[in-house]
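Folding Query — how this chain folds
Tokens — whole-number codes for backbone shape
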Amino acid sequence: MDLIVGAFKSPCVIAIVLAESDTRRNYKGNGLPIFHSQESLHGEVRIDPLPGRKLEHTGVKIELLGQIELYFDRGNYYDFTSLVRELDVLGEIAERKVYPFEFSAVEMPYESYNGTNVRLRYILKVTVSRNYLSNLTESKDFWVHNFSAPPAINNSIKMEVGIEDCLHIEFEYNKSKYHLKDVILGKIFFLLVRLKIRHMEIEVRRRESTGSGPNTYNETETIAKYELMDGAPVRGESVPIRLFLSPFNLTPTYRNVNNKFSVKYYLNLVLVDEEDRRYFKQQEVTMYRARPF
């Protein structure tokens, strides 16, 4: 039995070591080092044969892959980036062997994302090819963030909503595009109030859309909720809005990423009357990642 187990046990330990990964800022969600598009990745691959074992191979390579996985199609990966570096040709490894590697100025067009129904990831993958046995592989994930320049045009949002002869309000947000550490400022004006409003709140909602056509899946989650008013407003009253975005786990807006998924954000104004009836008004806003000062 030990001989059978030994035949299927990997004859070596493969490690991928990214240079500067210890000094880079890590993504707080999973601790992975953060890289940006057009950055270079370099490091080394270490292959350590187990004591008393030799590794015969037909080649060693490392790949940098950008992949999208849709959870309703789990197990199928869509590669949008694929780079290869050949590290070794046919040979034998009897003791530790170290292979340096470098991927220069890598175009990484999309940000890493781990959502409800989709995952976008970047990995380094080492493959040791063998003739008559299965190949040996090892992979290492890293995270990608990309910065956007502030929008040249960033108009405010002004809207009127109401229920005929019952409620008429105007609301205004100072911008339509916000960076992830921004502050949403605005005002709400009550022009007609014949409903007994109990309280009012504003929500930040994220909507993730995956697939297309009949296979489209939409998931909406409330990222932030903030109470604007507790009690009944009167005609002519003005309620200020001031919502800080920095405490919340937001991503930029993603539009039709590789024709696989989108992520959009909405500000949802909610009024609740004394009979617990809820009145909504939703407005899409754009989120972007600003370069740190």
Observations:
- The two ends are 62 Å apart (CA to CA).
